[in-house]
TrEMBL record:
It holds the Pfam family UBA. It comes from the Eukaryota. InterPro entries: DDI1_N, Peptidase_aspartic_DDI1-type, Peptidase_aspartic_dom_sf, UBA, UBA-like_sf, Ubiquitin-like_dom, Ubiquitin-like_domsf. SUPFAM superfamilies: Acid proteases, UBA-like, Ubiquitin-like. Residues 369-410 form the UBA domain. The lineage of its organism: Eukaryota, Viridiplantae, Streptophyta, Embryophyta, Tracheophyta. Keywords: Aspartyl protease, Cytoplasm, Hydrolase, Protease. Belongs to the DDI1 family. This is DNA damage-inducible protein 1. GO terms for cellular component: cytoplasm.
Amino acid sequence: MKITVMTGGEKFLSLDIDSEESVENLKALLEVETQVPLQQQQLLYNGKEIRNAEKLSAVGVSDGDLVMMVSNAPSPASRAPAAQVGFNPDGSAVNPSAFQQQLRSDSNLMAQLFQSDPELAQAILGNDLNKLQDLLRARNRHKAELRRQQEEEMALLYADPFDVEAQRKIEAAIRQKGIEENWAAALEYNPEAFARVVMLYVDMEVNGIPLKAFVDSGAQSTIISKSCAERCGLLRLLDTRYKGIAHGVGTSEILGRIHVAPIKIGSTFYPCSFVVLDSPNMEFLFGLDMLRKHQCMIDLKENVLRVGGGEIAVPFLAEKDIPSQLFDEERHAKEASSSGAQATSATKENISTPTGGPTGTTGRNTSQGPDFEAKVAKLVELGFGREQVIQALKFFDGNEEQAAGFLFGG
């Protein structure tokens, strides 16, 4: 089998040796290659010293493995006085070369270092003294920070129990410890919570124009921007009698409504109505009104949008298939979706009665008896807000079917 032996100074030797050979025979071979006497060699495998009498296969050494050789030969640097291998106030070694040689000569200490701090162990075996000094300074700063925290905790423990400020600090320390433990648990058991969640987009066609549609069940209305409606050839159908101001996270101007236009999902065409917003940063949002109308299901297990009760399934787009500018639009889409939740009520407050609608109904005192409450409850069950349902029923003089049609945007 072939093994690689790492000697001092980050030098590597590739050796052919039988797996049943003893460690002592391997050392003899290394003595020829490195001129380091067998008695001064210590071999480490996975950070543990392997003994002369052991066979390579018995300690787990197999083809392609790495074995480290540490020389414990005495050197002038290793016999340097204690002051020479001391430490500066910042944690760096006074004599980094002597410090490095002293640690290299102690195989037991090196084995422990490879278990507890492999980065420092590699720096000690390397030839970059500046890197070693930087690591020693970093370890010293970390220890100083831990000492400072421990001193603060001890000071709080011995603080006056009737000192309000001390109790406040103890409370904050306990809370922070709980937060850190919760964060560590999340990193271990729920690491995906720290990743970015890709929003749900599907390929659709609006009036024959392909679009990336943002599927948002939190938006009450399906929304299209003025520029997108113009590109799809729908702006000519804009009913400006439904103008208004949509209030949500932000405010957007409602330019009007497009009552019906064809959208293509998969291979099937469906009728769709849109609220048109003056929102150039958001293109097309497929909201709850059309999700309900066409009996859509968001299937996250299969990662598809099912339409028509499941007869059509279109896959949600992968992150690589979503144009980069749409990620910047998600924030605006959230604002638009919140605005869309108020779009219907806003239009009713700001429009005149459409031609052909129930004229003379605005401002009537509709009876709010048990029948009226039953109608309100039935429409609220469909997912509309209570205030919105009441306004719709008043607008249509208590006609439940007309109010429902108006709420659904039909």
